Amino acid sequence: MLDHEWFCERAEKEISTLAAVVADAPDVALDVPTCPGWTLTELARHTGAVHRWATAIVATEAAARLPFPEVDSPWSSADGWGQWLSAGATPLLAALRAAGPLTAVWSWGPGRTSGWWARRMLHESTVHRADAELALGTDDPVVDPVVAADGIDEFLFNLPSARRPYQHLASLPTGASLHLHATDADGEWIIRFTDRGIDWQRGHEKATTAIRGPVTSLLLFTYGRRPASDARLAAFGDETIPALWQEKTAL
């Protein structure tokens, strides 16, 4: 069951794994291809800052957006960044567990509860853990299929509220649609492009473009980390839709 503790446990595991990946990196100046312009240092700094931001919001039961923390770069070593990421996990998970799922707090997406943040921290950490592994040469990061499927749900749920995509979604071709079909897990999604943005639901339906593949690859496609042309995916229909999707929905 995907309850609050489930999200907390898996977020804790993903942050721990990310910290270990960063700590073992031969050089934190390595580029992260899936996050253009970032090195592993920027990836670690951003993710750890998000964890600390979420901690402050949940712990103080903030009713409005708090300033995003500014983090200097005193850690020159991979191990230092790894330890910093690990250090941020303890207060984050303590705040989330103490709050439970229903404490009213500000969030940038729908819901405005502490439970929203537990789910967000799981998927924020999972995708950036995959980014770090891809940067270090792992060709196919492993994500638990249940986590990956929920990550697609969560991305689509929050997408219309996300700051950058919000202004671009309505420019997707109205009337077109995208169907995602997981081949190794229980998961199908139909995404319809409307004059207001998108509508989506779980299910099977003929679409302008269909993409089939392992659910982790679908998650990475949804987040713009893997093109539809990747060998692990099979795309059918209008070939222009996947690139447009990734362009307009980039976070």
Q: Could you explain how this protein is built, in words?
A:
- By secondary structure, the chain is α+β, with helices and mostly antiparallel strands.
- The protein has 2 domains: 4-142, Four Helix Bundle (Hemerythrin (Met), subunit A) (Up-down Bundle); 146-249, SCP2 sterol-binding domain (Nonspecific Lipid-transfer Protein, Chain A), CATH 3.30.1050.
- 47% of the residues lie in helices and 11% in strands.
- It is built from 8 helices and 5 strands, in the order ααααααββββαβα.
- The protein has helices at 4-23, 40-59, 78-99, 114-135, 145-158, 163-166, 215-222, 241-249; strands at 177-182, 188-194, 197-202, 209-213, 234-237.
- It has a 5-stranded mixed beta sheet.
- α2 runs parallel beside α3 (78-99).
- It is globular and about 50 Å long.
- The two termini are 28 Å apart.
- The model has no long low-confidence stretch (mean pLDDT 96).
Task: List the topology elements.
Blueprint: H1 4-23, H2 40-59, H3 78-99, H4 114-135, H5 145-158, H6 163-166, E1 177-182, E2 188-194, E3 197-202, E4 209-213, H7 215-222, E5 234-237, H8 241-249
Parallel strand pairs: 1-4
Antiparallel strand pairs: 1-2, 2-3, 4-5
Helix pairs in contact: 1-3, 1-4, 2-3, 2-4, 4-5, 5-7
Entry keywords:
alpha+beta, Four Helix Bundle (Hemerythrin (Met), subunit A), Nonspecific Lipid-transfer Protein, Chain A, 2 domains, 5-stranded mixed sheet, 8 helices
Task: Briefly summarize what is shown.
A 5-stranded mixed sheet has the order 3-2-1-4-5. It is an alpha+beta fold. It has helices at 4-23, 40-59, 78-99, 114-135, 145-158, 163-166, 215-222, 241-249, and strands at residues 177-182, 188-194, 197-202, 209-213, 234-237.
